[in-house]
Amino acid sequence: MRTTRSTWRSGAAFALLAALTVPAVAFAASAGATTRPAATAADDAPRTDAPQTHEGGTSSVVDRVASFYGAYVDARTGTPDTTLSNALRAHYLTKEFRARLETWERKNAADGVLRAQNTPRAWQVTYDNSGAGHTWTKVRLTWGDEKKPTYTYLSVQSDLATKEISDIKEGTATGGAADSSADSSDD
What we know:
Elements (H helix, E strand, L loop, with lengths): L1 H19 L40 H16 L5 H11 L2 H14 L13 E10 L2 E10 L6 E10 L5 E6 L9 H4 L4
Antiparallel strand pairs: 1-2, 2-3, 3-4
Helix pairs in contact: 1-3, 2-3
């Protein structure tokens, strides 16, 4: 039974990756979109007001970062699905950055995409800045319980030409990298 589940999960991982190339579920992370706090148990309760809508587009770098982090956190939650995690990295990260990320992970004994050893319970992606052929997004990762959440921030760089993620650094709540000299993926 375990072999069947493993085979099924691998097949599902590749099916999900294929579906991600034309996002069926996207996120309202573009400039001017409204945001909401991290998900709570109450979010799953039936609502009497209008249903929440998420939207995105294939041309938005911010939507691609949101799609990546949503799928990546799902793949790492519970029993991590490394096949899916690796497929997502291959699809969303530049080849050069994947090589630098592997070096960073060996040196720091942590997941370089999350900059942590554990998996957050929620995430949020916000546009930060653009220039010189790149867009930067701020990723807020939510840790701990709902009553006392803690947050870490990442600054994610994407290439405008390919829309692929080309760097991830520790960030700040206000945006930008925390200290680019101390946290470079090249280290």
